[in-house]
Automatic annotation (TrEMBL):
Source species, domain of life: Bacteria
Translocase as UniProt keyword: no
Domain Thioredoxin: 307-447
Taxonomy of the source species: Bacteria, Pseudomonadati, Bacteroidota, Cytophagia, Cytophagales
One Gene Ontology biological process: cytochrome complex assembly
Protein name: Thiol-disulfide isomerase or thioredoxin
GO molecular function annotations of the record: antioxidant activity; isomerase activity; oxidoreductase activity
Keywords for the protein's UniProt record, in alphabetical order: Cytochrome c-type biogenesis, Disulfide bond, Isomerase, Redox-active center
GO cellular component: cell envelope
Location in or out of the cell: Cell envelope
Length: 447
């Protein structure tokens, strides 16, 4: 059971916005910077960072002089996006930052109530995160009791859940206090975005202003709110998450910056947990925002989708049992079953007798098999071929397990996985088993 639940992102919400403030400067003293290096100011669009300005540093001292008023909100300052710290700019005339880039938790600010409040916010959430991590560690240690002592396991988990609820309620009270005492400061607004009450549920967690107020769009806070929503209010299975993600997109006004930030957030999220849906969502993103470089750059990082029925089968070129490179395309002219399997895969081994039967029956009628093994042990691979009597010649593997180049090309994430390819090299069916495979081959080869 995951005690940590939904508050996973609240400690690192860093935002910029478009409520324009006054002309200003930013002075600082930062250790860990060589005299020849430049200091950069970074701005956000959703979770995306880009350079907004730069200045020289001498004797660890630097100063930005902004010719135009900055949008009021969160930025980052440092040597790179990775080596930088967050701060609030846009409303104060001359904030100052001091500290060491290598120790961001010790950064301090002067002449800046905005940033001093932000430090309180981050320190509270840093402590909150540590406490939640300790509860999660305790929950993980109880795993062995779930079967051996289920009653005790349940009792201990209830205790941990009570402690977590207490932490979460205290955090919510902290947000309410920040918001009530600082309604015009950015961190006060940030706290207001995440605070809840007894009436908060899936129907009212999001508000229209979450997507239309620029202050909530230029940073990762809207993305964090999407993440919290999925974990707190949505059933924990992938289909439910997909449905909820589509609903969040639909709730945001069409073609707005808010919807683009939602798209960007959700595509990044699903890249980690469901690449197929990330590809689908990414296609919708680019279609709605065809001129957006954010969309183009993000989608370019997505894996290519699994080849579809009707497409020409991508060519695979891997070494066979003798170390000779064999290409799938060399079998053009035959009906080919492209079979992804492994010696350690129980379902694959159980299906092999059906594959052998199909090969033996149709091998003289223009049918063959191209087997791609996801093994990482050569001996076990060869032993399985012999034991299961896989007598066709085309067995290939790069012995990289799930990192197989062939599996990546076909977006194979579970095995057995098969693609039936016609004489012209076009995919005509996927994942046929047993009688379904036999019937399809009969229709193709016994006319």
């Amino acid at each position: 059971m995951n005690i940590r639940h939904y508050l996973i992102a609240s400690a690192t919400l860093l935002i910029t916005n478009a409520s324009f403030g006054q002309k200003s400067t930013l002075k600082g003293s930062l250790l860990g910077v060589a005299p020849s290096e430049k200091i950069y100011l970074f701005k956000y669009f959703g979770s995306e960072l880009s350079k907004a300005d730069s200045t020289k540093i001498a004797d660890n001292q630097f100063e930005f002089k902004f010719k135009k008023a900055l949008p009021y909100g969160f930025y980052r300052v440092g040597l790179s996006a990775q080596k930088s710290v967050a701060l609030v700019l846009g409303k104060e005339a001359a904030p100052q930052i001091n500290g060491d880039l290598a120790q961001p938790e010790k950064i301090s600010f002067s002449n800046s109530p905005d940033n001093q409040l932000y430090l309180q916010y981050t320190e509270y959430n840093r402590t909150f995160g540590k406490n939640v991590a300790q509860l999660q560690q305790s929950a993980n240690s109880l795993g062995g009791l779930q079967e051996s002592e289920p009653a005790r396991f349940q009792s201990e988990m209830v205790k941990l859940k009570t402690k977590f609820d207490s932490l979460a309620n205290a955090q919510n009270d902290f947000y309410k206090k920040l918001n009530a005492e600082n309604p015009t400061l950015f961190v006060g607004k940030l706290a207001g975005l995440f605070m809840t009450d007894a009436k908060t549920d899936s129907s009212n967690y999001f508000r229209k202003e979450d997507f239309t107020n620029d202050e909530f769009l230029r940073g990762d806070m809207l993305g964090s709110k999407c993440n919290i929503f999925l974990q707190k209010f949505v059933k924990q299975d992938m289909t439910a998450w997909q449905t909820a993600a589509k609903a969040i997109v639909a709730f945001a006004p069409a073609k707005s910056d808010g919807r683009e930030v939602v798209y960007n957030t959700l595509v990044n999220l699903f890249m980690q947990i469901d690449q197929s849906f990330a590809v689908t969502l990414g296609a919708d993103y680019v279609k709605e925002y065809p001129k957006s470089n954010y969309a183009k750059n993000l989608v370019a990082r997505l894996p290519k989708p699994e080849p579809s029925v009707g497409e020409i089968a991508p060519n695979i070129k891997l070494k066979d049992r003798d170390g000779k490179e064999v290409e799938l395309s060399s079998l053009r002219g035959k009906v080919v079953l492209l079979d992804f399997w492994a010696s350690w895969c129980g379902p694959c081994r159980m299906e092999n007798p059906n594959v052998v039967k199909a090969y033996d029956h149709y091998k003289d009628k223009g049918f063959t098999i191209f087997s791609v093994s996801l093994d990482d042990n050569r001996d076990r691979w060869l032993q399985a071929i012999e034991k299961d009597k896989l007598s066709w010649p085309n067995h290939v593997s790069d012995l990289k397990g799930w990192r197989s180049a062939g599996a990546a090309l076909y977006q194979v994430h579970s095995i057995p996985a098969t693609f039936l390819i016609d004489r012209d090299g076009r995919i005509i069916a996927k994942n046929l088993r047993g009688a379904a495979l036999d019937n399809k081959l009969k229709s193709l080869l016994e006319k």
